[in-house]
Amino acid sequence: MTPRRIVIVGASLAGLRTADSLRANGFTGELVLIGDEPHEPYDRPPLSKAVLAGRTGTDRLFLPSAQDLNARRLLGVAATGLDLAAGEVRLADDRRIGFDRLVIATGSRSRPWPVPGEAALRGVHLLRGREDADRIRADLTAGPRRVLVIGGGFTGSEVASSCHDLDIPVTVALRGAAPMASALGEAVGTAIGARQRAHGIDLRVRTTVTALHGDAEGRLRRVWLSDGDELEVDVAVVALGSVANTEWLAGCGLAADPRGVECDAAGRAMGLDCAVVPDVYVAGDVARWRHPHFDAEPQALQHWGNAVDQAEVAAHNLTHRHQRPATALPAFWSDQFGLNVKSVGLPHLADQVVLTQGSFERGPFVAAYGRGGITVGAVAVNSPRVLDGYAALITERAPFPPAINATDSPADATVLSAGSNSAESSGPALTTVHGGQS
Amino acid sequence: MRVVVDLNRCQSYGQCVFAAPEVFRFQGAESLEYDHVPDAGSDQAVERAALACPAQAILLGRSAEAGVVSQAVAAEMR
Ligand SMILES: Cc1cc2nc3c(=O)[nH]c(=O)nc-3n(C[C@H](O)[C@H](O)[C@H](O)COP(=O)(O)OP(=O)(O)OC[C@H]3O[C@@H](n4cnc5c(N)ncnc54)[C@H](O)[C@@H]3O)c2cc1C
Ligand code: SF4
């Protein structure tokens, strides 16, 4: 019953946490960690924040493991195929690694700029890994005239904030009506967008980038926007959401596509016939699943906390007969422009939103999100200590709008349309991407 | 020693900043930043910080490299 060898593909947050909790759960068999990045696992959230702003370096982000992993690690080599019948993972160097149980934790990558010639210009960047961050950082320290951020999701907004910390002029162009609207809705996105503008960010909503132009040396110099404007910029960061790393699973029989690998709440992978595939688990950004608390389509919850929660559930279920579902409420944070933005529940599902504490215009605020008269999410800006109360309301499916009555609750709490533009972005599975498109 | 803070759990109480100011700091009013790989000299202060954190948000550990078997050995793993 207990597996002899567990193979984990993807050696980053979800993979490492799975390995760590397998050992914490008493797994004493062989553990193999396969990862295509040549580094020890490191933490990504600081890349768009402290790293770009120069407050820390990419060589100082390594993640801890609490247990002695005693794992065999194959780093710098990608998995290129999965043979479920043989119980083998194929590697880029043609090796085959057999497994009794497999964990898929290959995460996601940034969606590239769609015009390859423009994407190849020097100065045009994606931001996913430490090399990306090092390259952007080098360009930022070279004193660019202006930085263009393409996309107004979390990653785009955080990059703009880091440029602002460095006193570099920034333009953010986004397709939607407000930054982060696909995750936080239009009302809250608009409130945060106004604060970005107050910091001097040239924020252009409902605006797309129509062309990137380089000089004779192939270096980005100029960009054209759909509002007719033309800007001189030396650096562009493409932050248009992400795509799941599932190519290596093509044809293996699992329900895998660019939106992720489908799994149940216990983390068990599903086959094309929608049946659970024994012995194969999925965790982190690559997992597409239906959270048991919410009535929604299966979706990838591409945030740090989800990777940790799913890793722990997978490790438990790999070592116990009783399969436990992931039930922790989804949560994420973002730090930008001196604002600590924290979310609990699934605000992007909401049809209505209400300001429950503070003010959209200035200072801290909290907004609650409802769907069909039930509280499904909350977002707190510079108010991290109140969120537990909101989490309790979401857990008990409290009626929306919830009665908060805090000392800083507004006198008249107008319920607004949540105005999430998720329908407009790239499909339901991608609406909660950290760094998603807005 | 390696450090990671679960910033979903962290409620920005700042006890860690008191205990180990060379490792933990606030950036803005409520945003915690920290060094994931503090200098060895800070180990005791970091341990105090983890104990003091009211949200139990600070996870300490070792390098994930501990107990690594090299790539050469793995070649025999068929
Ligand atoms: C710039 C940035 C800022 C972020 N900020 C925040 C934040 O503030 N708050 C928040 O909640 N979340 C944030 N996130 C999201 C968070 O970092 C991710 O949700 C988390 O990294 C997911 O972990 P994971 O292990 O599932 O995937 P990943 O971290 O993507 O790791 C997957 C690993 O698998 C490897 N891999 C892929 N394919 C293969 C293959 N075929 N073979 C072998 N290895 C493979 C990848 O190279 C990678 O090392 C941020 C992400 C980024 C990029
Ligand atoms: S002591 Fe804990 S809760 Fe307080 S700031 Fe530090 S990590 Fe956050």
Which features would summarize this protein structure in a list?
heterodimer, A: 438 residues, 29% strand, B: 78 residues, alpha+beta, 3 helices, 4 strands, binds flavin-adenine dinucleotide, binds iron/sulfur cluster
Structure, described:
- The complex is a heterodimer of chains A (438) and B (78).
- With 438 residues, chain A is of the alpha/beta class.
- Helix content of chain A is 20%, strand content 29%.
- Chain A has 9 helices and 29 strands.
- Chain A has helices at 13-24, 50-53, 116-119, 130-141, 154-165, 181-184, 186-198, 304-319, 387-395, and strands at residues 5-9, 30-35, 64-65, 72-75, 79-83, 88-91, 96-98, 101-104, 108-110, 124-125, 147-150, 170-173, 202-204, 209-214, 220-225, 230-232, 235-238, 242-244, 256-257, 260-262, 268-270, 276-282, 287-288, 331-336, 339-345, 352-358, 365-371, 374-381, 415-417.
- In chain A, the strands form 7 sheets. In chain A, strands 4-2-1-8-22-21 form a 6-stranded mixed beta sheet, covered by helices on one side.
- In chain A, helix 1 (13-24) runs parallel beside helix 8 (304-319).
- The longest helix of chain A is centred in the last third of the chain and has 16 residues, at 304-319.
- Chain A is globular and about 60 Å long.
- Chain B is an alpha+beta fold and 78 residues long.
- Chain B has helices at residues 15-19, 43-52, 71-74, and strands spanning 2-5, 24-27, 31-34, 58-63.
- Chain B has a two-stranded antiparallel sheet.
- The model of chain B is unreliable at 67-78 (pLDDT under 50).
- The interface between A and B is large, with 51 and 37 residues.
- Strand 3 of chain A pairs antiparallel with strand 4 (58-63) of chain B.
- Iron/sulfur cluster (SF4) binds at residues 5, 10-16, 24, 32, 53-55, 57-58 of chain B.
